[in-house]
């Protein structure tokens, strides 16, 4: 089987968020979970996507699952974008692709310029009291905190400014107490003329990821959060990890469109 490493939410290698992508050979059930976890651990990127084709005539075209090196996740943006990129560039699929996932049917559309738009459910935000101790664990005082619902599973933490987000050096072990997956730290962009409206960083200790380079699923929460504050449905977010990447968002009620590019950097044979 061919396995690929794809950098997502970037137009150049060695940036954005790398994902493993494995297209399984036939329309059949997934291999057992232990094998999927072992492959993801071997790839050792934030997520590895596994997909197989589904019979024609159903509500979806491909079945899709995502695994970190430590656990399966319910929703992953960058690995979905990476999978759509592989399907398009290899000729395995044409036009919009419907993926059957743990978060329902997700649609990915590859445009003529090679960019990919994902149609994801908008995260339901609920304002919550700032949890005691979260400021010490994060290393900064929150302005507000929001629960992002079951699909995303994070605590969204608004900070004072972009500089504070960029300077975070959190206590990862302590952060794991505050949500199912981890923490999304965000602030308004200091200078929107640089091409982005807000900045974020994502720390996911509970699924084995210290800092995720670029997180599509987090932007299903960031989009409604910042759209409400900035008064626009279309925004661009900069996720300011060491690799960095930009995600274009378009809020459409209970759906959020996430757009970006991807590039395949490694292709090889899986013998296991």
Automatic annotation (TrEMBL):
The keyword Isomerase applies. InterPro entries: Phenazine_PhzF-like. Pfam families: PhzC-PhzF (PF02567). One of its GO terms (molecular function) is isomerase activity. GO terms for cellular component: cytoplasm. It comes from the Bacteria. NCBIfam families: PhzF_family. Belongs to the PhzF family. This is PhzF family phenazine biosynthesis protein.
């Amino acid at each position: 089987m061919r396995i690929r490493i794809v950098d997502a939410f970037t137009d150049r290698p060695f940036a954005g968020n790398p994902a493993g992508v494995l297209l399984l050979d036939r329309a059949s059930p997934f291999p057992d979970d232990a094998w999927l976890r072992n492959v993801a651990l071997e790839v050792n990127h934030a997520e590895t996507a596994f997909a197989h084709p589904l019979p024609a005539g159903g509500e979806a075209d491909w079945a899709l699952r995502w695994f970190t090196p430590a656990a399966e996740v319910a929703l992953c943006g960058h690995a979905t974008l990476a999978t759509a990129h592989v399907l398009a560039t290899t000729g395995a699929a044409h036009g919009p692709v419907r993926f059957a996932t743990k978060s329902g049917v997700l649609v990915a559309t590859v445009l003529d310029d090679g960019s990919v738009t994902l149609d994801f459910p908008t995260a339901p935000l609920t304002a919550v009291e700032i949890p005691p101790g979260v400021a010490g664990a994060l290393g900064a005082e929150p302005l507000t905190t929001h629960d992002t619902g079951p699909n995303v599973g994070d605590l969204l933490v608004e900070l004072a400014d972009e500089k504070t987000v960029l300077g975070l050096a959190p206590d990862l072990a302590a952060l794991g107490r505050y949500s199912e997956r981890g923490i999304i730290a965000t602030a308004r962009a200091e200078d929107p003329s640089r091409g982005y409206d807000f900045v974020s960083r994502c720390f996911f200790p509970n699924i084995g990821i210290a800092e995720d380079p670029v997180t599509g699923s987090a932007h299903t929460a960031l989009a409604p959060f910042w759209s409400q504050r900035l008064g626009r449905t279309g925004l661009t977010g900069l996720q300011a990890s060491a690799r960095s990447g930009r995600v274009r968002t378009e809020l459409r009620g209970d759906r959020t469109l996430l757009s970006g590019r991807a590039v395949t950097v490694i292709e090889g044979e899986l013998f296991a």
